[in-house]
Specification:
- The chain has helices at 25-43, 47-53, 128-139, 159-166, and strands at residues 6-11, 55-66, 75-85, 89-98, 104-116, 122-123.
- With 171 residues, it is α+β, with helices and mostly antiparallel strands.
- It has one domain (6-166): Hotdog Thioesterase (Thiol Ester Dehydrase, Chain A, Roll), CATH 3.10.129.10.
- Strands 1, 2, 3, 4, 5 and 6 form a six-stranded antiparallel β-sheet that branches.
- A hairpin with a 5-residue loop joins strand 4 (89-98) and strand 5.
Length: 171
């Protein structure tokens, strides 16, 4: 099966696995980081493009949702979508799947900034050809990014409950 949004494939390596036999949380980010490099390749900011243009992408913010554990030897694929972009930034959304599975094992969204690396890493507008490729990925994005835009936090507790438990300690 071919997935037109697939930008990266990998396999969970033994050194990436924790004491529970699962992929360590940091290595989910590594896989998404490698997928971000593949996204850069896809839009024309591969190694040659970065070098000749003196441009790159820097990550401003990243969020990861850990949905299902995966184990050593699991083949993974990452699919990417552009949720939004402007002259200098891209809101990239990615889902990681085990093999050819249909349900993601993890999701990540990132805010990336286009920078001129030849001028002290200052933000810069995308060149028209790069912007065109980003726009095409945005047009082709699925209507729903299930795990995008989530905020981390605990649900609010009523004040009375919060006050009553404030002075207690676990036994």
């Amino acid at each position: 099966m071919t997935h037109n949004r697939t930008i990266h494939r990998d396999t969970v390596r033994p050194e990436w696995v924790d004491y529970n036999g699962h992929l360590r949380d940091a290595f989910y980010m590594l896989i998404f980081s490698l997928a971000t490099d593949a996204f850069m390749d896809r839009i024309g900011l591969d190694e040659a493009g970065r070098s000749s243009r003196g441009r790159s992408l820097f990550t401003l913010e990243a969020h990861i949702n850990y949905l299902h554990e995966i184990k050593e030897g699991t083949a993974v694929r990452v699919e990417a979508s552009v949720l939004a972009f402007d002259a200098k930034r891209v809101h990239l959304y990615m889902e990681m799947f085990a093999g050819e599975g249909a349900e993601p094992v993890s999701a990540s969204e990132q805010m990336l900034l286009h920078v001129d690396t030849s001028n002290g890493a200052k933000s810069a507008a995308f060149d028209p050809d790069i912007a065109g490729r980003i726009e095409a990925m945005c047009r082709d994005a699925p209507k729903e990014a299930r795990y995008a835009g989530r905020v981390i936090g605990l649900p609010s507790r009523p004040r009375a409950l919060a006050s009553a438990s404030a002075g207690t300690r676990p036994a």
